[in-house]
Amino acid sequence: MSGKGKRKDEQDCASDGDSEGHAPSKKFAKKDSDDSDGIVVCEISKNRRVTVRNWQGKVVVDIREFYMKDGKQMPGKKGISLSMDQWKMLRNHVEEIDKALNEDS
């Protein structure tokens, strides 16, 4: 983990290329899902978001695509839910990922 100091909660999350230039996302509670209460951390693109939620009694970081059904946004099958251990592992390797991305560009 780096010693950079404060978190960057107010910044947009990185885009995956199909983002449509949305304004910085706001945190808000989402209570539409069946067995979880989640906090949307950011919207990556129009139909993709990062959410922290409780799923089957465990806190997960969920990166998922959403679709519209009957006027409601519903979570799709495309996505990944990271356990806290998996999230910490990914977070601890962000600098290495950034370095690899910079080498390719």
From TrEMBL:
One GO MF term attached to the UniProt entry: DNA binding
GO CC field: nucleus
Record's keyword annotation contains Nucleus: yes
Pfam families: PC4
InterPro entries (UniProt xref): PC4_C, ssDNA-bd_transcriptional_reg, Sub1/Tcp4-like
Family statement: Belongs to the transcriptional coactivator PC4 family.
Name of the protein described by the UniProt record: RNA polymerase II transcriptional coactivator KIWI-like
Organism: Senna tora
